[in-house]
Amino acid sequence: MxxxxxxxxxxxCAVLLTLLLPAAARADEGMWLPLLLKQLNExxxxxxxxxxTAEDIYSVNRGSLKDAIVQFGGGCTGEIISNEGLLLTxxxxxxxxxxxxxxxxxxxxxxxxxxxxxxxxxxxxxxxATFIVRMEDVTAPVLQGIQPGIAEADRERIVQQRSAExxxxxxxxxxxxxxxxxxxxxxxxxxxxxEVFEDIRLVGAPPSSIGKFGxxxxxxxxxxxxxxxxxxxxxxxxxxxxxxYSKDNKPFRPRHSLPISLxxxxxxxxxxxxxxxxxxxxxxxxxxxxxxxxxxxxxxVKVRDxxxxxxxxxxxxxxxxxxxxxxxxxxxxxxxxxxxxEMRGLKRLDAVTRKQQQExxxxxxxxQGDANRKAAYGQILDQLEQQYKLVRPYVVARDYTTEAAMxxxxxxxxxxxxxxxxxxxxxxxxxxxxxxxxxxxKGTPGSFRNVNVAxxxxxxxxxxxxxxxxxxxxxxxxxxxxxxxxxxxxxxWQRYVADVYRRxxxxxxxxxxxxxxxxxKGNATxxxxxxxxxxxxxxVATYRQKVLPTYTQAxxxxxxxxxxxxxxxxxxxxxxKFYPDxxxxxRVAYGQVAGYQPADxxxxxxxxxxxxxxxxxxxxxxxxEVPARLVELYQKKDYGPYAVDGTVPVAFxxxxxxxxxxxxxxxxxxxxxxxxxxxxRNWEGTMSDIMYDPDRVRxxxxxxxxxxxxxxxxxxxxxxxxxxxxxxxxxxGRANGSxxxxxxxxxxxxxREKTAAxx
Length: 759
Description:
Helix content is 46%, strand content 15%. The chain is an alpha+beta fold and 759 residues long. Strands 1, 2, 3, 4, 5, 6, 7, 8, 9, 10 and 11 form an eleven-stranded antiparallel beta sheet that branches. Strands 14-13-19-20-21-18-17 form a seven-stranded antiparallel beta sheet. Strand 19 (666-668) and strand 20 form a beta hairpin. The longest helix is centred in the C-terminal third of the chain and has 42 residues, at 531-572. The radius of gyration is 27 Å and the shape is globular.
């Protein structure tokens, strides 16, 4: 099939018309608040194939789909798939926990891990699973009496105080927690009441050759063949409420768990993604998009590209280093590649021009309005342009400080001890100093556990010159200016860094603890005389004194102006359905199963299969190693009930609007059944955090049948499958914990139980 491309001038006209259309006509863009689905989305969702109601998805009076969704840790989503608290998320979301349980002797990253009994399920201190109990629009009490002309810092103080009071009142006398989040740049505010569980245990994870199949080569790409899942279990106290870890805790009994469909998917099928998307900026102006495209993304990609090459080489040379840096490398590489795709997508969409066209139309609307409209919005775009021009060098300095200077782990550790020097120099009470030192002492083993000093030294020698060259001259500390003059070659930087690491006492856990012992005696020079501290301290001081104040002030102004601009956009387009930018709060995205055409003459199917894994298999490339057991099952065609047309489905694409934080989100069909787990976006669609393209934006989902195949046939953990409610296929329903053959498809209804949220 060959694509047909319009001339550029006609494409721009078509784009402009699209921008001015109501959002309902713009495919499947949007991350919607569950509280407002009835009002904004129910009819459209049902037209696309939803068989449920908005109340079935989000309810405070009875069990609903939301009661099976958790925020997993601080940055992913998970879903409950059994009545015994079994939790499904991505392999890359559980990667840190899998790593912490791994060693060279017990390498669960490489070999996988499966708890065959409850006693073998591994605790994970610090890991949480957070349910949303209810949401509430609290805009009126938060903003009551705040005048439009108030300084942004003063406004924020009032907002934070009122938000804290509302949150405290909402959960008084309960075990729940609460917080308030701004929407539309602070034009609206919503209260979220949560239930946070803290005894979360690792149940199972496939080997990295399945869970990370394709590695960084395939990351953000389609076609994709990654079995990106891991399993945990939520444990609760005897009253089924959150409780600290105890061997006496019991598996959590959820208000709702997702039934799992074996029916599969086909093009056009309705899909719903329910999760906690992290951050989007869909309403940026042209100057904001330009800053991302021409300033931030290039700087961050440059630094991470350098660091990743060093880590990759050392990880390949040592199993110990590989395990130490596995989670860090994956995290760094994830957004490095995402930003590259984002730049490509913004360029292809000519995003800055599109935003400029929208702004011109907005200016015309303002000028055609009355005096009130002109007073409210007449200067808003000019003021935004001024602030973006002012802040640009400070954005560059921020990016190089955070990515390059603070990306060196020994320097980051040295900086973390700065507060101890401050306490000593301020002659703080001894008890306060000792408490701070005790906290630092407890955190020190963790700081060094996953650091190889030789590797970090290489990173420092490479990143320091990038920081020196990339940061605007007027925002560089004097020590770096001097070092830049002294070290004019890579070899000179390497010699300088080697000397710092040789003389520093902050390069090993043992000597770092000795420094803390001396600080406890009031000897500040134990740290201030250390060469690592002397290197990082001026960098951080310059950042705090010269960069951060101006950057923060400008960003406060941009926030205020952006809030006003969004309010103007909503007045300008009253028929358009606006959704708030993602901010790690619970959202619903919906769309349909679909392939796409990434380029002229190229068309991608909507699904991949086990056959594709075997086609990609390459024992000489770590990204494409295939475990022997999987090859054996493939050769024998031993697929159990999870096969379709002689193979096992692995992944599929759909048009749902997703972002970071949606990793691990359930992908649910129109009947409320789990059909897969969201784990990525296509590279051509990564700019959707800023601008959505219905033709190319696709979320990538692990087909639930591949997950079941791996758990059941590959791992032999059929006891886990027996916990689940399988519907729509040859294995449907449960009877006393065993699977039964049921040829007829079951219709699944969301449980209609009263919940604590009703109170």
